[in-house]
Design goal:
The chain is of the alpha+beta class and about 40 residues long. Helix content is about 40%, strand content about 30%. The model has no long low-confidence stretch (mean pLDDT about 80).
Amino acid sequence: MKIFTWEELQPSEQTLNLIRQLAHTYRVINVNNEQESLCLN
């Protein structure tokens, strides 16, 4: 089993930007008391 160090767990800036972009456009709405997820472009 490989042991990970903290340096290996740090995502790259490109990965962080992608996560930020998805979080900015991701929305959850309620339709008929059910949650629907949407990704707004």
